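Board notes (copied after class):
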Amino acid sequence: MKKVAIAALIAAAAATTASAGGLDPVVIEPQVIVEEASSSSAGGLIVPLMLIAIIAVVASS
C-alpha cells in the first residue's frame, strides 16, 4: 500500500509541475500595410516645362 501511495504522490507532483505555467498567451502580430505615395498630376509636367523654358531662354539669347 505504501508503494501505491508513494507512486500516487510522485505522479501528482509531476503533474502539477508540468502544468504549473499554464498556457502561453497568444501573440498576434500586427499587419504592416504599405501604402504607395500618390503623385500629383503636375509631377510629370514639371520636367518637360523646364526643358521648354530652358530651350526658350537659349533660343532668345
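Comment from the instructor: The two ends are 116 Å apart (CA to CA). The CA atoms of residues 51 and 57 lie 10 Å apart.
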